């Protein structure tokens, strides 16, 4: 083990720091300081919501006199160590993030990869500026609103659509990472792929998590590409403990290192992607021009206060506004005075979640194509009106979407968003931080492979039905060049001085917002260590469904929920992938989701 690195284990022994309980007066004092710092926070480049616009711009903060303690938190140890090795060579946070993503594409192909997309929230350690980089996939120019309807005019079955050629959007992760690297990289792009290339050539041992997915009859694993890749010399499906090599991916990484993103968006790989997506069944509509023309988007972060922090997320087409709304509602309840053993606390979380999801599902989409009432969803009086709907017991019918200020009538959402994805966090010695959520959408994407990596099935994140019975358009309907709505919300927290205070994000499809919200409540409101907060049982309440880890709650919680009208059932909310960090008293309190194979690496090799 590297002498200068600390690895935090799942027992949380290195994460045990807990803050003392804050008094109400102290919390109010911190909020006053937070609002007083708003003028300086324009250096963070946030879109402030619920806060007055600053009248002037403060001078950028100076660089920290002492180097920050670097860390990498990721869902796979091989990926985390690839990033740590880059940091040890003097690489920046984005340099290390590129190495992490290249390795995840190989060792965690069920979740993310170079054939997918991502959102990245970046904190500049010298200026305090926050920038969101949108690498979400886009629909091809020949896409149509009815492309996921069958000949009978009804939506296609999801299992059919997910492995179809038309499921794949123009991948954005590589182009987005290249953009961030041009702006914030320290090492040459060509030097960042060595660990993943070597591992692909030499092979890696299939982990228990990947092996478990290989035992499940996902439709993607029945595709010819996936069946061949995961078969041994005897023709049998590989399993946990088997070694798998990927020379095609190694060769692609060599070209990607030498040629940059053109290795994916132009030339032979691009031609293969087009051919693969245009093959049956349900041929897609992607062209070489779609790939060559892909552009990542830089956006301002969307920020809102929560307790003593400013919580900053990507704006639409990310659903970060949903997370902010959930927190804003919870802050108006007494959940902070309760705890994880209290059924009423979980009841408040469930009901606020249902209200948030009703609004998110109705209104959030690509802002270039749909009017998203971001400010209205977070307007204090509107939040008050939603909180007022939380009664003593859960209503039999799920809550309807509200009408926030600025809302335009939209169709009820019918989007399916399965649980794939990965999240990781990197900080370098200069204090720069990357919080990134990355995905190929469903498990193993579309099941179709090119040059050793899986193609995404991201277009199935659109609503299959473009309108409702009245003709109202769905905010998340398919359109040429449009980015599908995403639940990915890589988050960064700032303290009252505008300095980095934490980062969090998760895998899990629609459930991401619940996973992240629960973890923040645990870490901030209930003063748990980050590892303990992530280990709290998951509860996902959306529409008529209440799912979660029924057997993991404290005694009496499930019965207490039932008495309040919530029948919690297993089967949803059990496969989160939250990775997070808080800076507490100057120390790194990092955590990884115990449901996955993550690791927290603090420090670098020497």
Helix and strand arrangement:
Blueprint: E1 6-8, H1 24-36, E2 46-48, E3 71-74, H2 77-88, H3 93-107, E4 117-123, E5 130-135, H4 158-162, H5 173-184, H6 194-202, E6 204-205, H7 208-214, H8 224-229, E7 243-244, H9 247-259, H10 262-265, H11 267-277, H12 288-292, E8 297-299, E9 301-306, E10 309-313, H13 320-331, H14 343-363, H15 374-378, H16 380-387, E11 422-427, E12 433-439, E13 449-450, E14 453-454, E15 491-494, E16 500-505, H17 512-525, H18 530-535, E17 539-542, E18 545-548, H19 557-563, E19 579-584, E20 587-592, E21 599-602
Parallel strand pairs: 2-9
Antiparallel strand pairs: 1-21, 3-11, 3-21, 4-5, 4-12, 5-8, 6-7, 9-10, 10-15, 11-12, 13-14, 15-16, 16-19, 17-18, 19-20
Helix pairs in contact: 2-3, 3-5, 3-6, 6-9, 13-14, 13-16, 13-17, 14-19
Task: Put the structure in a nutshell.
The protein has 606 residues and is an alpha+beta fold. Helices cover 31% and strands 15% of the residues.
Report on the architecture of this protein.
31% of the residues lie in helices and 15% in strands. It is α+β, with helices and mostly antiparallel strands and 606 residues long. It has a domain at 61-304 and 445-472. The strands form 5 sheets. It has an 8-stranded antiparallel sheet, with helices on one face. The N and C termini lie close together (10 Å). Mean pLDDT is 88; it is low at 1-45 and 47-65.
């Amino acid at each position: 083990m590297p002498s200068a690195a600390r690895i935090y284990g799942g027992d949380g022994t290195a994460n045990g720091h807990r803050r003392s309980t804050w008094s109400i007066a102290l919390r109010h004092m911190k909020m006053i300081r937070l609002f007083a710092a708003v003028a300086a926070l324009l250096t963070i480049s946030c879109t402030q919501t619920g806060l007055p616009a600053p009248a002037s711009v403060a001078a950028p903060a100076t660089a920290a006199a002492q180097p920050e303690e670097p860390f990498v938190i990721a869902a796979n140890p091989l990926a985390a160590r690839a990033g740590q090795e880059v940091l040890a060579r003097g690489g920046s946070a984005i340099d290390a993030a590129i190495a992490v993503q290249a390795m995840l594409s190989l060792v965690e192909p069920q979740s993310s990869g170079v054939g997918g997309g991502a959102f990245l929230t970046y904190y500049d350690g010298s200026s305090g500026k926050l920038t969101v980089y949108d690498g979400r996939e886009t629909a091809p120019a020949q896409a149509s609103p009815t492309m996921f309807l069958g000949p009978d005019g009804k939506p296609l079955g999801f299992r059919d659509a997910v492995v179809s050629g038309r499921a794949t959007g123009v991948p954005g992760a590589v182009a987005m990472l290249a953009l961030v690297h041009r702006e914030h990289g320290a090492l040459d792009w060509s030097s960042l792929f060595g660990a993943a290339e070597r591992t692909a050539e030499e092979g890696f041992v299939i982990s228990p998590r990947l092996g478990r997915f290989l035992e499940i009859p996902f439709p993607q694993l029945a595709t010819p590409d996936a069946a061949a890749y995961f078969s041994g010399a005897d023709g049998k499906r590989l399993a946990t403990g088997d070694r798998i090599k990927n020379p095609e991916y190694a060769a692609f990484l060599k070209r990607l290192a030498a040629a940059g993103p053109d290795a994916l968006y132009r030339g032979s790989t691009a031609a293969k992607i087009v051919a693969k997506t245009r093959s049956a069944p349900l041929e897609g509509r992607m062209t070489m021009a779609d790939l060559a023309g892909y552009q990542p988007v830089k956006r301002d972060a969307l920020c809102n206060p929560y307790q003593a922090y400013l919580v900053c997320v990507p704006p639409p087409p990310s659903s970060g506004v949903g997370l902010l709304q959930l927190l804003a509602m919870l802050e108006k309840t007494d959940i902070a005075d309760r705890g994880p053993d209290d059924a009423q606390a979980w009841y408040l979380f469930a009901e606020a979640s249902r209200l948030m999801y009703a609004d998110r599902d109705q209104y959030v989409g690509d802002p270039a194509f749909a009017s998203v009432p971001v400010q209205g969803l977070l307007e204090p009086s509107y939040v008050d009106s939603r909180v007022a709907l939380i009664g003593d017991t859960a209503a039999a019918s799920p809550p309807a979407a509200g009408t926030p200020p600025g809302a335009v009538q939209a169709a009820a959402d019918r989007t399916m968003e399965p649980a794939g994805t990965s999240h990781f966090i990197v900080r370098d010695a200069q204090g720069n931080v990357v919080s990134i959520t990355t995905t190929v959408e469903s498990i193993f994407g579309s099941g179709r492979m090119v040059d050793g990596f899986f193609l995404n099935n991201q277009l199935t994140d659109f609503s299959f039905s473009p309108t409702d019975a009245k003709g109202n358009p769905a905010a998340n309907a398919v359109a040429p060049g449009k980015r599908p709505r995403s639940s990915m919300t890589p988050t960064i927290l700032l303290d009252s001085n505008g300095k980095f205070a934490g980062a969090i994000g998760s895998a899990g499809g629609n459930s991401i917002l619940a996973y992240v919200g629960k973890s923040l409540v645990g870490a901030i409101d209930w003063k748990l260590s980050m590892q303990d907060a992530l280990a709290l049982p998951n509860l996902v309440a959306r529409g008529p469904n209440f799912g979660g880890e029924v057997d993991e709650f404290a005694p009496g919680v499930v019965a207490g929920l039932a008495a309040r009208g919530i029948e919690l059932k297993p089967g949803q909310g059990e496969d989160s992938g939250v990775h997070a960090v808080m800076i507490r008293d100057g120390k790194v309190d990092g955590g990884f989701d115990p449901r996955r194979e993550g690791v927290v690496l603090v420090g670098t090799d020497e």
